[in-house]
Amino acid sequence: MTVCIYFVLCVCFKSSIMYVTRIAYYRERVILMRQIDFIITSDTGLHARPAGLVVKEAGRFSSNITVVCGDKRADAKKIFSLLTLGAKQGDLISVIIEGQDEQEAADALEQLAQEYL
């Protein structure tokens, strides 16, 4: 059984988006990840057009990108996975990014969230 302990390293606020950087210790291996939390402000929620933009943007990066809404998780690189979240206006969305280019991916997805979500 793998034991994981999370420590919050940094919490930053930019407008309505909260950044959380976490470090996870898995036995002897250290894994860094970025998490972006935001509330959907669009009247139409996360429908096909913005989901397509998220998939296109996420596809540019090698990092694993997961979107969480409530108790549902989706791969940000698969449009049908994102659409099954059923995210509506006012829902809290968490984007978890793990990988070598996680900072660049977090910056790009934060910009996309500000413009379209």
Helices, by number, come to 3
Please outline the major beta sheet: 6 strands, antiparallel
Low-pLDDT sequence parts:
1-17, 19-28
Known CATH architecture:
2-Layer Sandwich
* Radius of gyration, taken over Cα atoms and rounded to an integer in Å: 14 Å
Shape descriptor reads globular
Overall pLDDT: 78
CATH superfamily: HPr-like
What fraction strand?
35-45%
CATH topology: Histidine-containing Protein, Chain: A
- How do the strands line up in the largest sheet? 1-2-3-6-4-5
Name the helix and strand elements from N-terminus to C-terminus, one letter apiece. Answer: EEEHEEHEH
**CATH class assignment:** Alpha Beta
- Given helix and strand content, the structural type is alpha+beta
Number of domains: 1
Alpha-carbon distance between the two ends: 38 Å
Please tally the β strands and state the result: 6
Describe this structure in words.
The protein is α+β, with helices and mostly antiparallel strands. The protein has a single domain (4-116), classed as HPr-like (Histidine-containing Protein, Chain: A), CATH 3.30.1340. The chain is built from 3 helices and 6 strands. It has helices spanning 48-58, 79-83, 102-116; strands at 4-14, 17-26, 29-39, 64-69, 72-75, 92-98. A 6-stranded antiparallel sheet has the order 1-2-3-6-4-5. Helix 1 runs antiparallel to helix 3. The chain is globular, with a radius of gyration of 14 Å. The termini are far apart.
